[in-house]
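ugh ok fine here u go
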Amino acid sequence: VRMAFDVLAALLFMHERGVIHRDIKPSNIMLTELDGRIVYKLIDFSISAVEQEARADVSQTLRTGTTSLAALAGTPHYMSPEQITPGQVVTSQTDLWSLGVVMFECLAGRRPFAPLENRDRSRIFHAIATTEAPELMDEVKEVGAVSDGINEFIAKALQKDMKQRYQTAEIMSTSLDEKS
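structure:
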């Protein structure tokens, strides 16, 4: 939960400036210490993209160093349904989906849509597009290891329909605070 709060703070900062990370995954979340406190930092912005409406507000360097929002980019197991659908343009919600996948994996010990060893992109994409995320409570064997609130939180983060998901990092962070 602490990791999610730190990542959500970074996403809120980025999304307010029109930047979408597009590759939220465990290896892009770094654990460090700052003033004696454990802090999680979001790293690797190599495939980030800038939303069209924010282009006027970002530096020329950032604009020229990012990729198109319609380009297929990311790590398959963590990509959102809209990210894997040809022709769909991603929004900041794709980062929120991916954080939900990371949280599920942290708590359940496996990714929600495809086995860890599955490297077949088409099978991974098919699972993301067609199967519902399993209930986190069913995946966590230890009784009481995950609260109902966290279970509901992750279930909402992994809704296929963007309208049913968290709309912003701020809303997601508030919900996490209420449910944790």
